[in-house]
Specification:
Chain lengths: 314, 308, 396
């Protein structure tokens, strides 16, 4: 039964477009799926390999701009951005890795934060090549209806999920976790930590970039402030994974559902809407204090008060 | 000589800016050294201090420079509370990712800046004091000077006060017992414990001092700049860039790093282009991380050891 | 665990139910605006202006007898949020016409959505030229574009000042970039040499390095495209560095609102700015609107307020003339618009590569004795311009 659960869920998700939901609800679902992909991608590097990155917006933005610039300069469909991402983002990941992976812990976090910001400022300044803050706009998006976008991102999300599962259940996965737990011990056991950290980073970067390229196609308009910002993208990714649960398969997905849901619903409430960042901040603090392994990771802590009640009443 | 004038004016601007930047970084460096945490909410504490100064100016016409005496103690107490109830518990919690403390400060930063937007609206505010654009001009004192240099009055005032505070801090750290305990904890926690230092108390006091420094920095900045809720991010960036350039946890490094960054930013703005200045800041940051991980402090330390 | 996520998903699918626009005799109109974020101030000015217009329209019987109810939605200044708001308005709430938003990037995102869903969109404030250069049939813009912001100002320069050189400083946003690009274009046409052209990131602390560079270049005119705080800081530091130019001018936005004078104090005196509208101008309803706004909110509104106020009147006019409230009929009504609002004359034309664009005279204001006065073109002037301006050292 348990083995079939993922397939059942996937089948259910495939049927959703037939439920004739409003375009707005489809939009939310697409966002949830996209953030799940980004969260899962970050999780490879952060949750499993223990390298916490505060700069994943760099990868996301690069992916979006790859798609956008292919359209802008070569006048081909922005969907080519997705395969192009694999090459571009691997190159970017190698560069980032070369600079940052030699650093540990908080230094790595800060370095990635800095790189994310450098990408943003560079994009703003490259007015001739990349339009700077004028942004890149698709004259027409491929489809007006959301259905195909939904299936594409669903396909990407499912693919990501199984890819990560396969990687983590292989030797590669063990190496990642070993590096996270104690990098020096792993190195002394003969694990080439630099190589595996780089692989982890590349996987993480490419998947995030693909999500970015999808975003370009779906949104139809990007500029440096939309795809490279620190709080709206980089830190939100960290939040998604932390809230859901780092180093779990379902954590980023749960995190994405909660964060997107919260973001959209809170925003619409008249006065509280302006305070949504406060609410997120408070949630983040509460999670860190009480559920540091996220909802999935610390699920037993969440369930404990309910279990106790049951015992008391019986 | 327009080129010389341009260079000197840029240098002066960089110097003044660097002095103020250093003050921000000092607080962060102290906290980093003792608590081993990168306080990404540092700039937002500064923002809170600036709002205090703003309201004192607008409602009671108190000059921002005097507001330090109100903002500093207020932030000291506030900082202590945060340290006790939020930071310390998290330091003890077990989790898969050890970076929870940093992420916690990110959460705090979000809460502070957003609450400020809710309560004070996103409007830009400033404290337009009467001497805001006054300056001393070289040609007023030396009419035949080949270059026309100007020294802004509020900038110079802020710079001088920053220097005074830095000296006061230096005296505190080297001559008093508490100061020495702080430095001991920063160098080696276990050794300090063995020496009988109350590490918990030291952590609290250090955080408090960090808050006082950042409050002072805020009050010194508001006459020359302006205020808005999202300001914290920018100054947190400055803070951690300097601490890395200067060397994590090193106060000497923070001062020198501040000057380096200030002059570097000014020079970049003049000679390369102002749009690139923020990128330049981060580039120097990454370069420091990669090529000189110990920062300026490590160079100083080598020199000190070499002398012996 | 998986139960939890399924539960969460189902809950919010249920929680979102479509709402109807036509409830009996009220007409609900959703307006996206940046109510939080860096542009919140302008979002506030526009919101207040929309509300003044709404109250006036309702007092006179509403639109076709229906009472107008405005619902403002916060886009936070982010294009993806603005887009999502408008999609909801069109798809869920079935609003047949959309208008609003402040920044160019948000207006652009909305324009794309409106065009593909064949719903008319009235651009109120977004100024980058490309929004109405795409050949979109459903997008109409009431405000002049960046390329036309400075026409009034250029006419002043060519007639009175006749400068040979110019320095341009601009913030790195789309507004700043396109305003600067346009000034470069205009300068070339007028035979002026651009000595310095520098972009800076909003929120910069210290402009003195770049201002020293400008000082060394000795331009005749210093032209700045900034929002208010940068504008104030720039002028303060220009005064401090004693940079003497024949003229200091802003490209609207930050230079055209009262806060500029409050924050820059003496440094703002005699600074000119291009602007689209001023409280002294004599279009029908314009002065009354400005005074009403001032009575309620203590300061005159900026031109953004006038744009918003007029936008609602245009919507009223269009909805009254339209054969029905189906999007295409509304679009047809837009195309035949010919009215004069408090902001100025409104006619949507296809001209010079633009589609459905309104073309208007632009003005020049100057800060004289701490107040913004309209000085050019002279037929709109409320005061005589001050030129040449004295050097900093000679000013007391």
């Amino acid at each position: 039964m348990k083995k079939f659960l993922p397939l059942i869920i996937i089948a259910a998700l495939c049927l959703i477009p037939f439920m004739d939901l409003s375009s707005y609800v489809m939009h939310i679902l697409i966002l949830v799926l996209m953030w799940s992909v980004i969260g899962m991608a970050w999780n490879i590097l952060g949750g499993y390999t223990g390298q916490v990155s505060f700069g994943h917006a760099a990868f996301f933005g690069f992916g979006a701009y790859t798609a956008g610039l292919l359209y802008y300069h070569l006048e081909i469909s922005a969907w080519w951005g997705i395969p192009a991402c694999v090459i571009v983002l691997t190159a970017l990941s190698l560069v980032v890795g070369f600079i940052c992976l030699r650093l540990r812990g908080a230094y790595f976090a800060l370095a990635t934060l800095a790189l994310g910001e450098i990408c943003r400022v560079t994009a703003e300044n490259l007015v001739d090549f990349a339009q700077g803050n004028l942004g890149i706009m698709l004259r027409e998006r491929t489809w007006v209806e959301k259905t195909w976008y939904y299936y594409i991102i669903l396909f990407i999300a499912v693919g990501t999920y199984f890819l990560i599962k396969a990687v983590m259940e292989s030797k590669l996965g063990y190496y990642f976790v070993a590096i996270r737990e104690d990098q020096d011990a792993a190195e002394s056991l003969g694990i080439n930590t630099t190589l595996y950290k780089t692989i982890s980073l590349c996987l993480s970067g490419v998947l995030t970039g693909i999500a970015g390229a999808f975003f370009m196609n779906y949104m139809g308009y990007i500029d440096p402030g939309v795809v490279f910002p620190l709080y709206d993208i980089s830190i939100t990714i960290v939040m998604v994974v932390m809230v859901g649960g780092a180093a779990t398969y379902w954590g980023p997905i749960v995190g994405a559902v909660i964060m997107v849901f919260l973001a959209e619903e809170i925003r619409s409430i008249p006065y509280i809407g302006a305070a949504h960042m406060t609410i997120f901040g408070v949630i983040l603090i509460l999670i860190i204090l009480f559920l540091p392994n996220g909802i999935v990771g610390d699920f037993h802590k969440l369930v404990k008060p309910f279990k106790r009640k049951r015992e008391a009443s019986s | 000589m327009p080129e010389l004038e341009l260079f000197l004016q840029t240098l002066i601007a960089g110097f003044l800016l660097g002095g103020l930047y250093g003050l921000i970084a000092l607080g962060m460096a102290l906290i980093m050294g003792v608590m081993r945490v990168i306080n990404l909410a540092h700039g937002d504490f500064m923002m809170i201090a600036m709002y205090i100064a703003y309201w004192l100016f607008t409602l009671f016409e108190i000059d921002p420079y005097l507001s330090v005496f109100v903002a500093a103690p207020a932030l000291f107490l506030f900082g202590l509370a945060i340290q006790k109830y939020l930071l310390t518990p998290v330091m003890k919690v077990e989790s898969i990712l050890p970076h929870n403390l940093v992420i916690l400060t990110v959460g705090l930063a979000m809460v502070f800046s957003n609450l400020a937007t809710v309560f004070f609206t996103g409007d830009y505010r400033s404290t337009p004091v009467n001497y805001a654009s006054d300056a001393w001009y070289l040609t007023d004192y030396w009419p035949d000077s080949p270059v026309e240099l100007s020294l802004s009055m509020p900038w110079s005032l802020s710079f001088v006060i920053a220097v005074i505070i830095t000296i006061a801090l230096w005296i505190f750290l080297t001559k008093t017992d508490t100061g020495k305990s702080i430095r001991a904890t920063s160098q080696d926690v276990d050794a300090a414990l063995l020496m009988g230092v109350n590490v918990n108390r030291v952590r609290m006091v250090t955080f408090g001092i960090g808050m006082i420094l950042v409050a002072a920095a805020g009050c010194l900045f508001i006459p020359i700049y302006y205020l808005y809720p999202a300001l914290g991010k920018q100054f947190t960036n400055v803070g951690f860039v300097i601490t890395v350039i200067g060397g994590m946890g090193s106060t000497d490094g923070a001062i020198i790093g501040g000057l380096i960054l200030g002059i570097f930013e000014s020079m970049t703005a003049t000679y390369i282009g102002m749009g690139w200045a923020p990128a330049g800041r981060f580039a120097i940051f990454v370069a420091a991380l990669v090529f000189l991980p110990g920062g300026v402090a490590s160079i100083l330390r080598k020199r000190r050891l070499a002398k012996k | 665990m998986k139960r939890l996520s399924l539960f969460v998903a189902i809950t919010f699918i249920i929680g979102l139910s479509p709402l109807n626009v036509y409830a009996q005799d009220t007409l609900k109109l959703g307006i996206p605006l940046p109510l939080t974020g860096t542009n919140a101030k302008f979002g506030e000015i526009e919101k207040k202006s929309y509300e003044i217009a709404k109250d006036e329209i309702n007092a006179k019987g509403g639109i076709k007898g229906k009472k107008v109810v405005l619902e403002f939605e916060d886009s936070q200044g982010k294009p993806e949020v603005a887009r999502s708001i408008v999609e909801r308005l069109i798809d869920v709430k079935k609003q047949p016409v959309v208008f609003g938003e402040y920044s160019s990037s948000c207006s652009k995102a909305i324009a794309a959505v409106a065009e593909e869903r064949k719903t008319p969109y009235l651009v109120v404030t977004g100024a980058t030229d490309d929004i109405t250069q795409q050949g979109y049939k459903y997008v109409f813009r009431l405000n002049p574009t960046n390329a036309y912001y400075a026409t009034g100002f250029m006419s002043f320069l060519n007639t009175v000042v006749k400068p040979k050189t110019i320095a341009i400083l601009y913030e790195s946003s789309d507004f700043g970039t396109s305003g600067a690009e346009d000034m470069v274009h205009q300068a070339k046409k007028a035979g002026m040499q651009v000595l310095v052209k520098e972009q800076y990131e909003k929120g910069a602390v210290d402009f003195r390095p770049i201002l020293s560079k400008v000082k060394a270049a000795r331009p005749d005119v210093i032209y700045m495209v900034s929002y208010v705080m940068d504008a104030a800081l720039l002028m303060r530091q220009i005064k401090e560095l004693r940079i003497d130019a024949k003229l200091y001018a802003g490209g609207a936005a930050g230079f055209a609102i009262p806060e500029f004078v409050q924050n820059a104090k003496e440094a703002s005196e005699l600074v000119m700015t291009a602007t689209l509208w001023s409280p002294q101008i004599a279009y029908p309803g314009s002065r009354e609107f400005a005074e009403k706004y001032k009575r309620l909110y203590k300061d005159y509104p900026s031109y953004h307020g006038a744009e918003a106020y007029s936008a609602l009147y245009i919507i009223k006019d269009v909805l009254t003339r339209a054969k029905s409230w189906k999007p295409n009929d509304i679009r047809v009504a837009f195309k035949t618009t010919n009215m004069v609002t408090a902001f100025g004359p409104i006619k949507f034309e296809d001209k010079a590569g633009y589609t459905n664009q309104n073309f208007m005279d632009t003005l020049v204001m100057q800060v004289i004795k701490g107040k913004h006065e309209t000085i050019w073109p002279q037929k709109y002037a409320s005061a005589q311009y001050v030129y040449p301006i004295p050097k900093w050292r000679e000013r007391r």
